[in-house]
Write a structure and sequence with these properties.
The protein is of the alpha/beta class and 350 residues long. It is built from 14 helices and 13 strands. The strands form two sheets. Strands 1, 2, 3, 4, 6, 7, 8, 9, 12 and 13 form a ten-stranded mixed beta sheet that branches. The longest helix has 20 residues.
């Protein structure tokens, strides 16, 4: 069943890639993170119906999105790893978040239902370090009393591409496990000690679905849309939490978005009894000195529409919309984006 659903996603993504080549002049071009692809796809469909302007978005991973915007081959890049102030300045980029969501472990273990299994950060890190290799390991069994765990090897699945999802996942593992921090570290791509690599959230989801006794990590919308078996987590406060919108929102509740250049706040391992520990924002990157001012204006018009009208669609997929106060700050940043004539492209929309 999953195969047919995944094929639909692949066809949509493929069509997007093809249409990017033959896009109409008024269409918006972007590339990058797979984390927000479900909501960007939903927004794009509605926006096209309402305005006639299409969005040609290539879900190629955060690393690819950063490269494409730096090379100016797209109007905007998308990354789940926020760039630091020095990186933004060096590449004349403005950065802003669009939505927040959760990264969840997904498993394929016979007899285990969504939310029945629970893991903590240290145990998850040791699975990905190759130090816990069987599902009935005492560390997993201790967390899951009464759950029947097979005496079977754990098949580990991870991202093979440069991924903001991986950045946030490894950031969390480093925060909860000193061994991970010292030996593997935090990046969009790491030297994985064990496991099978797959491209994109779609690829990880497909590999977990097709591999018995496997575990992977994906953005929650992929688990939700494809009816995958996700695990609960023990958070920083020691409480068991399920990956739900209110738990993602709890992680972001105390975020000080203005504290970092380009709103680049990391939401992993936040305190709070109701907080999901692997929450992340996803970001848009655009050049301050726009090569095509009209195209940049159209992109900003799309995101302006999404902030104003896309909240319900985001919530339906368990993404968290940005607070109105943050959106106001973001729009103030947009005034810095200027065309070749030196005029603000955001002013074209106002």
């Amino acid at each position: 069943m999953f195969k047919s659903r995944l094929s639909l996603t692949a066809v949509i993504a493929g069509a997007t890639l093809v249409s990017a080549v033959a896009a109409q002049a008024g269409d918006i071009s972007g590339a990058g993170a797979t984390f927000p692809y479900p909501i960007y796809s939903d927004w794009a469909k509605t926006y096209k119906e309402k305005t006639g302007t299409g969005l040609n978005y290539q879900a190629i991973g955060s690393g690819g999105g950063i490269k494409q915007i730096e090379a100016r081959t797209v109007t905007f890049g998308a990354s789940d790893k926020p760039l630091g102030g020095d990186e933004l300045k060096a590449n004349t980029l403005v950065q802003f978040p669009t939505v927040m969501g959760g990264i969840v472990p997904v498993v394929n273990v016979d007899g285990i239902k969504p939310g029945e299994l629970v893991l903590d950060g240290a145990t998850l890190a040791k699975i990905y370090e190759g130090k816990i290799t069987k599902w009935n390991d005492p560390a997993i069994a201790k967390l899951n009393e009464g759950v029947k765990l097979p005496d079977a090897a754990i098949a580990v699945v991870h991202r093979s591409d440069g991924s903001g999802t991986t950045f946030n996942f490894t950031y969390y593992l480093a925060a909860v496990d000193q061994g991970w921090k010292d030996d593997i570290g935090v990046s969009t791509a790491v030297e994985w000690p064990v496991g099978l690599g797959a491209k994109g959230n779609q690829g990880v989801a497909a590999n977990v679905d097709q591999t018995k006794n496997s575990i992977g990590y994906v953005e929650y919308a992929y688990a939700l849309q494809n009816h995958m078996t996700y695990t609960d987590m023990i958070n920083k406060d020691g409480k068991r939490v399920a990956p739900k919108a209110d738990a993602f929102a709890a992680a972001a509740a105390n975020a000080d978005w203005s504290s970092q250049p380009g709103f680049g706040v990391i939401l992993a391992n936040q305190p709070g009894e109701a907080t999901w520990p692997m929450t992340a924002a996803t970001f848009i990157l655009m050049h301050l000195d726009a090569k095509d001012g009209a195209a940049s204006a159209e992109a900003l018009k799309f995101f302006d529409w999404a902030y104003a009208n896309g909240g319900a669609a985001a919530a339906k997929l368990d993404y968290i919309p940005m607070p109105a106060s943050v959106v106001s700050q973001i729009k103030a940043e947009w005034t810095q984006i200027k065309g070749k004539d030196g005029a603000s492209v955001w002013a074209m929309n106002n």
